[in-house]
Amino acid sequence: MQDKHGAILLISGPSGCGKSTLLKEVYKDINEYYFSISTTTRAPREGEKHGVDYLFCSKEEFEKDIAAGNFLEYADVHGNYYGTSLKPVKEALAQEKLVIFDIDVQGHDLVKKTELASYVTSVFITTPSLKELENRLNNRATDSKDVIEKRVKNAKIEINSIDKYDYFLVNDDLSKASKKLVSIANAARIKSTLFNKDLIIKEWMN
Ligand SMILES: Nc1nc2c(ncn2[C@@H]2O[C@H](COP(=O)(O)OP(=O)(O)O)[C@@H](O)[C@H]2O)c(=O)[nH]1
Ligand SMILES: Nc1ncnc2c1ncn2[C@@H]1O[C@H](COP(=O)(O)OP(=O)(O)O)[C@@H](O)[C@H]1O
C-alpha cells in the first residue's frame, strides 16, 4: 500500500513558556523530524543563528515573500512578522517526516484553513501561572522590559485559544513535560496513518 506521507506537530504557547527548551529535549527522543524554520523580521537575540533558529530578514524582504505566495501562513506577532515557508514543509511531508511548527495562535488558525489542516496535531503549551511566565521571561533576559510587558499582555489573549488545540500541556517539570510531548509526537505520526483509511476501504470493497 502506498500513499505514505508525514505529519505535522504544531505547537503554540505564550512567549517564555518553554517551547524551544521543550523541543530541544524532545529531539533527543524522536527521529525523522523536520523543524520548520520560520522567517521573521524580529532582530536576532544573542546566540541565535540565521538558518537555525530563524531566517532573519527585513520587512521589505518579508513583504516580497508574501507577494510571491511563499508562505503557508504568516502573522504579525508582538509587532514583528513571522511566517512559515510552504516549499520545505511540503518536501519534508513527501519524505514522510514529522514536521514541527512553533507558531502562534493566529498561525494555528490559518494553517487549519489550508490544504494541510488534516496533517496537523496541535499542542498548546503553557506555564502553571502567569507569574511563572513573567519570571521565565525575566530570567531568560533576552528582551527589554517593554518587550516582556507586551508578551505578558499578549499571553492573556493567547490563552483564550486553548480549546482549539488537540492537547494542552503545562510545562512545569521539564523532564515530565518533554516525555508527554514525545508521546504526543509519536501519536501525531500514527494519526497520519489514518490517511490510508480510504485505501483500505477500497481494498475491502474489491
Ligand atoms: N504565525 C507564526 N508565528 C510564529 C512563527 N514563528 C514563530 N512564531 C511565534 O512567534 C512568537 C514569538 O516568537 P519569538 O520572538 O521567537 O519569541 P519566543 O516565543 O519568546 O521565543 C511565538 O509565539 C512563536 O510561536 C511563524 O512562522 N508563524
Ligand atoms: N520547565 C521549566 N522550568 C523552568 N524554567 C524553564 C522550563 N522550561 C523552560 N524554562 C526556561 O524558561 C525560559 C523560556 O524558555 P524558552 O524555551 O525560551 O521559551 P519559548 O520558546 O516558549 O519562548 C528559558 O530561560 C528556559 O530556560
Automatic annotation (TrEMBL):
A Pfam family recorded for this sequence: Guanylate_kin
Location of the Guanylate kinase-like domain: 6-186
Keyword Cytoplasm attached: yes
Binding-site list for ATP: 13-20
GO CC, any one term: cytosol
GO molecular function: ATP binding; GMP kinase activity
Catalytic activity line of the entry: GMP + ATP = GDP + ADP
PROSITE patterns: GUANYLATE_KINASE_2
Main subcellular location of this protein, as a coarse class: cytoplasm
Keyword terms: ATP-binding, Cytoplasm, Kinase, Nucleotide-binding, Transferase
EC number: 2.7.4.8
Known function: Essential for recycling GMP and indirectly, cGMP.
Record family assignment: Belongs to the guanylate kinase family.
Protein name: Guanylate kinase
